[in-house]
Amino acid sequence: MYYFAGVDVGGTNTKIGILNGEGDILKSVSIKTESIMGVDYTLNKIWETILVLLDELDIDRDVIKGIGMGIPGPVIEQKKVGFFANFPWEQNVNISEKMEKISGVKTRLENDVNVIALGETLYGAGKGFSKSITIALGTGIGGGIFIDGKLISGATGAGGEIGHMKLEKDGKLCGCGQKGCFETYASATGVMRETLSRLQMNKDNSLYKFIEGDLNRLEAKHVFDEAKKGDKFCLDIVDYVSEYLALGIGNVLNIINPEVVILAGGVALAGDILMEGVKEKLPRYALGITIENLEIKIGELGNDAGIKGASALTI
Hints:
By secondary structure, the protein is of the alpha/beta class. Helices cover about 35% and strands about 20% of the residues. It has helices at about 40-55, 95-105, 110-125, 185, 190-200, 205-210, 220-230, 230-255, 270-280, 290, 305-310, and strands at about 5-10, 15-20, 25-30, 65-70, 75, 80, 95, 105-110, 130-135, 140-145, 150, 260-265, 295-300.
């Protein structure tokens, strides 16, 4: 029997798991990424952790047939990273080559949201569909496009960067330096920005009472929780966010025409109160034929999606 390692590299923490050929996680652990120490330090630390997990599972390193990695940044040909989001590492680093020198094991990588998409497609909410889009709604918005057995990464690894579709000409400033991006309106950061702006003008609501007037305590989750209790102030914000989500998703449907849209990440956990608004507004922005049999589902794998998807890159 052969085994695989799945690695989900994050800005702060890196999740590492050992999986069998069926995609079952046998054992996993989270370690500090410590990117400030340099790319070689981090990769050596990941390999050392993989060896520890193998020892704990009593698995010989010779039966590890592949290491798959999810990386925050555009990945070219599953080997080279164009640039690293939030990492002080050089551009165009061949991570595959470096990791193979360290470990002696075939290594392939993809953008972090792409591996989440692959995990959900093969083992989670997208199982059984040949055309799916996974949208990760977190601090930003990422996308993974899976068509007929393949991830669509694009010529320079930026395929699926739907968070940077422009929804407003000269709109709100995005962290990427451009304006009007999808993620400035519908990510957790977008929810926070809009809520803080409105709280400056309106403090007569249950949200302001919940955080006891301390804006530093505010989280996007609080907005959805208070909306579920019927607070009009928060319901208005949810309506605002669902409008932009419907607009962004509608644009993607018109271009890709998937069978299923999988929503992952913290904002997606808002559940029905957000999804009902999106479904109601979607016909304004998507061609009717793209939503006739469309399914919109919440991701099923949670924090395991990245590990599972990464491991599948080398199966």
